[in-house]
Design brief:
Elements lengths: L4 H28 L2 H5 L3 H6 L10 H15 L2 H18 L4 H9 L11 H17 L3 H21 L10 H13 L3 H22 L6 H13 L2 H11 L15 E8 L4 E12 L7 H14 L5 E13 L7 E6 L2 E4 L1 E5 H11 L1 H25 L1 H14 L13 E8 L7 E6 L5 E7 L10 E7 L2
Parallel strand pairs: 1-10
Antiparallel strand pairs: 1-7, 2-3, 4-5, 4-8, 6-7, 8-9
Helix pairs in contact: 1-16, 4-5, 5-7, 7-8, 8-9, 9-10, 10-11, 11-12, 13-15, 15-16
Length: about 450
């Protein structure tokens, strides 16, 4: 009996870790229950269906989902409150809990406190900027825009992987628009310039073309500031055509709409078998995991002594009917341009992290196998129980911010005199209108441009 004492204690730890892992996975499913109500714009029902977790494991998801629903419901102060709490949670999660890390090594990554993907963290600032704008706090909106890429830079520096998403071009563009709307042309020029560079990186990483209105906005800022040499250099370097979009210049009488569409893709699970070849000592779990990453990409040679079954997250896109947007006001019409492809960013982000996730997952599977082998020396029954536990707790971390849109489009129109209605149309690939929203009571005749936003779930 004396020799079994440590294994009995280990069994209790494994059982508790398994319970925690089950709770984490279950809460992720609970978060998804509100999506149907979000899609039908039943904001009150969507909020009621969100169960506040008791611990930190999925608290960030709760704050993110609730903050977004409150934003759509028009409770901008309440939305900012939830997003502020979300930011604090993200900062807190940088200090890792050792007990949770051990539990994750024993069970799966879903036991860790969810800290959000980088693009999810940045979107907090997009929605907070909109909230402050609708609350009439122009400076508050600008603070959020500036924070977005500063924090993204910090995230990239602290990461254990190299991300393609290292600069959010859309947030730079939005920052420039808000600066120019406030008469701060020099700051607008800097943001537009950084947005141009950011979209060039987007084209390489995500296959997304820069939105043509950006060239016209940058040209307008350089002309007002007298930065002709700067404009010439930027135009030649990036092939900018300020006449390509046909969008009216930002200014009094213009309405700019940010149109969100669909749902961003979700994470599913894919199970694979990883070979442990002859000569690979199972006790060296991190050596095995490093070798497994190479074998996953390039294959293997030699006799396979063990097959480790592991679960990895995979990206599952959510189809959308929308292929474009259009604005109508009076007799005027303006097409929209894609400014943020969250679907492409989310897919590439997960791909960038694939090797890190695989390495950690294989190390965990190898550690479970080692525990089974050692337990069988004490008792076949104990070894069998640990083997069953290892198989039953192996699952990919498929958590994500479920209610985010798939894409964000931007359209700008000059309001004809006397009109106060702007129609936003969502267009499919065949040119048909699949969704429509009418903004009423739009006051575009003041001294500043107007910014609006709307979400279609098509």
């Amino acid at each position: 009996m004396k020799g079994r004492g440590p294994w009995i204690r280990a069994g209790v730890v494994l059982l508790l870790a398994g319970v925690l892992a089950g709770c984490a996975a279950g809460y992720s499913r609970t978060m998804g229950k509100s999506l149907g109500r979000v899609q039908s714009r039943d904001w009150e029902g969507a909020l009621a269906s969100l169960d506040k977790p008791s611990g930190d494991t999925n608290m960030l998801l709760y704050r993110l989902e609730k903050g977004l629903v409150l934003h759509y419901a028009g409770d901008y102060t309440g939305s900012n409150g939830q997003f502020e709490k979300a930011e604090k949670l993200i900062d807190r999660h940088y200090t890792r809990s050792i007990s949770r890390e051990v539990a994750a090594l024993l069970t799966n990554d879903a036991i860790r406190a969810y800290s959000g993907e980088e693009f999810e963290r940045v979107l907090i600032h997009y929605y907070r900027a909109l909230n402050y704008h609708y609350l009439g706090d122009h400076q508050g909106a600008l603070v959020e825009c500036r924070k977005a890429n500063l924090r993204l830079s910090d995230f990239a520096e602290a990461a254990e992987y190299e991300l393609s998403y290292a600069n959010d071009a859309f947030m730079q563009y939005l920052t420039g628009l808000l600066y120019e709307a406030g008469g701060e042309v020099n700051d607008a020029y800097i943001s537009y310039r950084d947005a141009v560079k950011g979209y060039a990186a987007y084209e390489d990483a995500f296959g997304m073309r820069p939105p043509p209105p950006l060239a016209a906005d940058l040209r307008r800022a350089t002309a007002e500031l007298g930065f002709e040499p700067e404009w010439t250099e930027l135009q030649e370097r990036w092939g900018l055509d300020p006449e390509a979009s046909g969008a009216p210049p930002l200014g009094p009488g213009t309405v700019t709409v940010f149109a969100e569409t669909g749902f961003v893709g979700r994470k599913g699970q894919n199970e694979i078998n990883v070979p442990i070849t002859k000569g690979g000592k199972l006790k060296e779990v991190w050596t095995i995991s490093d070798r497994a990453v190479r074998q996953y990409h390039y294959g293997w040679e030699g006799k396979v002594e063990y097959w480790l079954r592991v679960a990895l997250p995979v990206y599952e896109p959510v189809p959308s009917q929308v292929s474009g947007v259009r604005l109508r006001a009076g007799g005027a019409e303006a097409r929209g341009w894609l400014v943020e492809d969250l679907d492409a960013i989310a897919w590439r982000t997960l791909r960038d992290k694939e090797d890190v996730i695989l390495r950690r997952t294989v190390a965990r599977a190898a550690a479970k196998w080692l525990a089974k082998e050692a337990a069988e020396e004490e008792s076949e029954v104990l070894g069998a129980l640990i083997n069953l536990f290892g198989a039953g707790t192996e699952a990919a971390d498929t958590r994500s911010w479920l209610a985010l849109p798939r894409t964000i489009w931007m359209a700008r129109i000059r309001m004809p005199p006397g009109t106060q209605e702007v129609a936003l149309e969502f267009i499919n690939a065949q040119g048909g209108v699949v969704d429509r929203h009418e903004f009423t009571g739009v006051q575009a005749g003041g001294g500043h441009p107007v910014f609006l936003s709307w979400r279609s779930f098509r």
